[in-house]
Write a structure and sequence with these properties.
The protein is of the alpha/beta class. The protein contains 16 helices and 18 strands. Helix 6 (129-139) packs across helix 13 (323-334) and helix 7 packs across helix 12.
Amino acid sequence: MEEYRRIADRVEAAVRDGRLRPGDRLPPQRVFARRHGIANSTAIRVYGELARRGLVVGEVGRGTFVRAAPPLPGPALVEASGTAPVDLQLNYPVVDGQQERMARALTALARPGVLAGALARPAAADGTPEARDAAVPVLAGPGWAPDPGSVLFAGSGRRAVAAALSALVPPGGRLGVEELTYPPLRAVAERLGIRLVPLALDTEGVRPEALAAAHRAAPLAAVYLQPTLHNPLAATAGEERRDALAELLRRLDLTAVEDATWAFLDPGAPAPLAARAPERVVLVDSLSKRLAPGLTVGYLVVPGRLRAAVAEALRSGAWTADGFALAAATRWAGDGTVAETVAAKRADAAARHALVLRRLAGQALRTSPHAYFCWWELPAPWRAETFAAAAARAGVAVTPGSAFAAAPGAAPGAVRVGLASPPHAVLDAALARLAALAEAGPG
């Protein structure tokens, strides 16, 4: 592949994963050439290629600006509709019978008297006694269940994270975070004026010595962790690691925000940090992955000393749950819908994991039989951005590793492959296409 096309692929990947947004101005071509170590003539060809792909538009006297990314080009593996490319970026699992199970509760909720109560007023941060009681079995795991009085409610998991961070970290404060982390966390931190401090990882997640060293260098206000099925690495911390982190939180007088959004998929995972250091951990969770993203509720399990501050953050940020969604979630938890759907998704994740092991055999993968995603360290000479762009032209969307990097400019040579969204047969064909692409090389 000619150099200018490879560079254009990297720019296209940055547009598709949101690092370059519609309306962003590209640097002048001479500056672009210096930054990339290429000739001015090559930069001119890069800009011409980007324009040909419909990614940028030049305005005389003003410069070159990013347009909204067009539909993925090239031959596409398609869904049953025959028109959509395969999206392995978004990761929303849906299993057979899920809608029917959810509809049972919604039918009861639609009765006029019940509906009036659900729509009468916004939900309070602490919901209702029924909602708090119903949340306990949803959040509980082996050897641990939250106190109903410790539960607060948000409109989504992302809003729950935002409220927790708003209560814990002042503007300009430092938040310790895994060096590879949940991408929306960066946007939440930027909006709140929080500085992210990347923490080194190993196969079990954050290394305790990295957390201690970061706090010694300059005090952290809090730390954000994903101990179970870390996104994107699918890592799960063992008992000893969790005990060490809990003890370190106490010793450093630190509070952790523990994101348990994907933990429901692994029933054998150790008890959360919130069970080991309940006075030092705000646990956040959500219904979006357990059920569906279109009608969701976020949960927070909050230590008593922080309850008023987090509740106020929920109210002032307009991050509380909607009354209707909370009423639906309460019924879904109480009538068995959540438990039945979770069981089905655990089996579904294992089946999709098997497809990955078959189609990407021999590749450097970090995954788990419980995970709906895998981290693929690409073979040389592939780079993540060029692979993602090449995959897009082949009709398959994957996420380059840079989207998960807590430090600006970091570019891991890996992609995350989301497994949850397409039907099994479509996923299998997409994985086969990706495997062939990796073997062929960037050409």
